[in-house]
Structure formats: C-alpha cells, structure tokens
Predict the structure of Alkyl hydroperoxide reductase AhpD.
Amino acid sequence: MTEIPEPLKVYQTIAEFANRQGVLDQKTQELISLAVAVTTRCDGCISIHSQAALKAGASREEIAAALAVAVSLNAGAAVVYSSHVMEAINQ
C-alpha cells in the first residue's frame, strides 16, 4: 500500500474524527456534508455525499431543505460583500 503523504494524514485524521458517530447521526452528517459540498463547489463531494445521504435515509425533501440552507448562506454572504462594493465605490 502506498504511504500517505504527511499533509494528507492530517486531513485523514480530521475526516475520521468528523465521521465518528456521536452527537450527530449519520443522516444529519451527510446532509451537512452535502450542503457544504455545494457551497465549496466540490463535484466529487457532491456525488459522494448525495448517495451517502440517501443511503443514510435522507428524503428528497430533507436534501432539498439542506440545499436551501446552503443557497441561503451563499446569498447572505453575497449581500454582505455587495455592501463592501458599495462602500468602496462611495469612497
């Protein structure tokens, strides 16, 4: 087996910690992961977490709700940064 480069070991450790069952159930973790994947525009992540969310029991409606949260947060950030543009052009 190929040895994992040191910087990727850190990612692997974080991913293993995040994926442990504990406070959040698997379905909730996958819905969060899918929403984050959309906001970070990670095609591979979207593919993986879409299927994982369905496998964990998420309904189409729950997935749509998680995506709506992602869209809302992106829109909110765009509004905030739009105000920065307006401030910059008013100086």
